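Minutes, project check-in
Item: structure for the 290-residue chain
Input as provided by the requester:
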Amino acid sequence: MTASSPWLPTGTESAVGTVPGDVSWIRSAQPHRFTGPLLPREAWSVLVAVLEEELPEAIEDELRLMVEHLVLAGLLTEDGQLTEDGLVIARTLADPLAVISVECRWDGGVLGDPVGGPSGRQDAGTGALAVFLSPTAAVTLGTPGPATCEVDPATGRGFALELFELEWAPVAVASWTGAGPGRPWTEEPPGLPLPLVEARAGDPATPPPPGVPDELAMAWAEPWVLWEIRTAPGEERMLVLRMGDREPLALSTPDGGDGVVMAPVAPYTLWRTLVALVRRALVAAVAERG
């Protein structure tokens, strides 16, 4: 079930720590699709537990159901042994070198861009994606994100699994969040209080502050997507806001205050930042482990 890439066309491979020299072909945010199995949270615990001990011959009904899920997903054999992919996933979940956590909220509407047209979800919601990194692999567990299309109603009752080669970790994040090009801002938006931005991201009825520029006032009424990335180890944090089809904004809070600076981010810069976050998390992990 290992995939070489969830998002990029064949032939654009790049190792973590390097940046593609030409990304001009990226014309739009790509619709995200889960391709791996959907499993309950309890199934992952069973998978990791099999690393340490064999399953007993007599098992209770609830455990048997989890085992059946894992067998159907191709992670366990009929006799309770880890498959090749199951072993990679179990080891990565049990002892990851680093973890990239992404949380996202969006207020509904169609996500789109000026070139590629509409893509993604039309309902409001929240989502989460965890990317577990090993020396050679990236394992993601996630609920539907703002760019996820063709959502199975059952996805709300579990976590979808993806297994990728390590270098595709930043791509998985970009795909899930719907990161991509947008319509340029004519001027940088003014700073706003962080509580106000968070309130508007969760409730489109939240009014804008008085006196904001016309461009921001128009963007205020469009669909919002707010996503946050955290890394461990390294404890880095990145906060990004997308308003309608406009270019993403990197949010920062200078001097630890509650005011937010909103700086437009070009797709190339956003991609470099995602790659750098993954790389620095891995470097910090190696340093921690000596």
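Outcome recorded: Residues 190 and 262 are 7 Å apart (CA to CA).
No further action items on this chain.
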